Amino acid sequence: MANPSAVCNGHLHHHHQKQNNLLKSGIYKKNGITKGIKKNGISNGTLYKKKFVEHFEQAPMYVAVFTFLGFGVGTIFGYLRDFMRAWGLEKRNIATEREQQKDFVPLYQDFENFYTRNLYMRIRDNWNRPICSVPGPQFDLMERVTDDYNWTFRFTGRIIKNVINMGSYNYLGFAETDVNALKTVTIELQKYGTGICSTRQEMGTLDKHVELEKLVAKFLGVEDAMVFGMGFATNSMNIPALVGKGCLILSDELNHTSLVLGARLSGATIRIFKHNNIQSLEKLLRDAIIYGQPRSRRAWRKIIILVEGIYSMEGSIVRLPEIVSLKKKYKAYLYLDEAHSIGAVGATGRGVVEYFGMSPDDVDVLMGTFTKSFGAAGGYIAGKKDLVDYLRTHSHSAVYATSMCPPVAEQIIRAMKCVMGLDGTTQGLQRVRQLGKNTRYFRRRLHEMGFIIYGNDDSPVVPLLLYMPGKIGAFARRMLEKNIGVVVVGFPATPITESRARFCVSASHTREMLDTVLNALDELGDFLHLKYSRYSKSSHPELYEETRLELED
């Protein structure tokens, strides 16, 4: 990426005819990484320097049958309740159109609200629970009850203390209130206040932003970086600045909504490839090179691949070595979202690039957030200086969004220096290694108990499959009774047959906390019949045999 046009203005024209001829002649079928890919899109390992173990076990057929049956019964009773509401036999709580507006275009789509009205509302108490403490390894919860089946809630005034937090993205434990740890943040708060009241392009660039951007670039090993006040907007507001009409976006089917929104706002053509499936991606790349744009058959101005480091709902890690090989082979660009992976994987917490032992130069656009591993807010885009300079001028976030507030910037600096060891201690490295140990221990125990869990063995995002809709609410409520806070997810956020609980492991979790959670899961798994796995023991036990490593400050 020698100049801004390498990101912003297409330059694949001179490759098109050459690659077209090579593809048609079959040369690409004999050379390149396709030789290292099995029929299911999984590499044979020639590109990997370490074992790459992921689990996506399918449940027995009867589980899928009962899951569909559960949704079917819920739907039937939903229509019955709607019939009763229409005839005044049951109170109608949801918003409806006024009689005077019956000839207007409907504001509320009745069928679209059916799921919310009749299924989600029955288990709504398991979401949006108000927390009244720092979201560390434990938190305090405000108790609430409902008198009308979750349509409204009222607070009892009771605080549920010391709930084990298994849902927050506090991977390295920097969401903390220790006075000594936050001393520098307090100083910056007193010096700068809480807000900037301006954008980066006007009066909103402070010395703290410059310091943070230099630190991020150093941490990632790239030329430059730019920070933004909101992680979601880092994707959704910057992708449209990088691609537009005449460009092609190849997006993983499980990409985060921020990536999806940014791709749609860009006006570029979007094509979806199967999750982490290299064959699916290569087919789209080949077709894009051979056929070009629809109708005109001109070469695409630019082809960009959008992927995540760790997928937040699956717990899987991107197959970066293979994707980089494809990207180089077909002269495409790679946009890597490391929201969940930066700080969480890699020997020193530098994300999936370090995890696979690759160079940051292999990725054209490095994106990440500070909302998870660094216990703060905002996001960054990093890479070549030409790229970052272009975004400083053209990014919608830089032009219109308020700058990151100084205390948040200082919190990120504090946490990142700790991870890098620039604070004079090894506490950051200890946190990274402790997270890895906790992750492998937690996943191994769940495998041994017989649960079906998704994702990579090194991913701190651990989805435990529940499947049946009735078990979503029962699982979360029972866990809270045991003073354990969990996140449960169902359709439409997941496929209809793959409802799940999503655990996020933290370096701040003690072994005693994890054992408490695991014992509760073991008991609840038997009670709710959640142990669907046909492989009760991990197929890779050697990965979990590790010695305890202590580092002195």
From TrEMBL:
Any GO BP annotation: sphingosine biosynthetic process
E.C. code: 2.3.1.50
Xref: CDD domains: KBL_like (cd06454)
Keyword match Metal-binding: no
EC category name: transferase
Localization annotation: Endoplasmic reticulum membrane
Cofactor(s) recorded in Swiss-Prot or TrEMBL: pyridoxal 5'-phosphate
GO-annotated cellular components: endoplasmic reticulum membrane; serine palmitoyltransferase complex
Domain of life, per lineage: Eukaryota
SUPFAM superfamilies: PLP-dependent transferases (SSF53383)
Membrane topology designation: Single-pass membrane protein
UniProt keyword annotation of Transport present: no
Record keywords, A-Z: Acyltransferase, Endoplasmic reticulum, Lipid metabolism, Membrane, Pyridoxal phosphate, Sphingolipid metabolism, Transferase, Transmembrane, Transmembrane helix
Domain Aminotransferase class I/classII large: 161-521
Pathway: Sphingolipid metabolism; Lipid metabolism; sphingolipid metabolism
Molecular function, one GO term: pyridoxal phosphate binding
Transmembrane segments: 59-80
Similarity-based family: Belongs to the class-II pyridoxal-phosphate-dependent aminotransferase family.
PANTHER family assigned: CLASS II AMINOTRANSFERASE/8-AMINO-7-OXONONANOATE SYNTHASE, SERINE PALMITOYLTRANSFERASE 3
The protein, known as: serine C-palmitoyltransferase
Source species of the chain: Smutsornis africanus
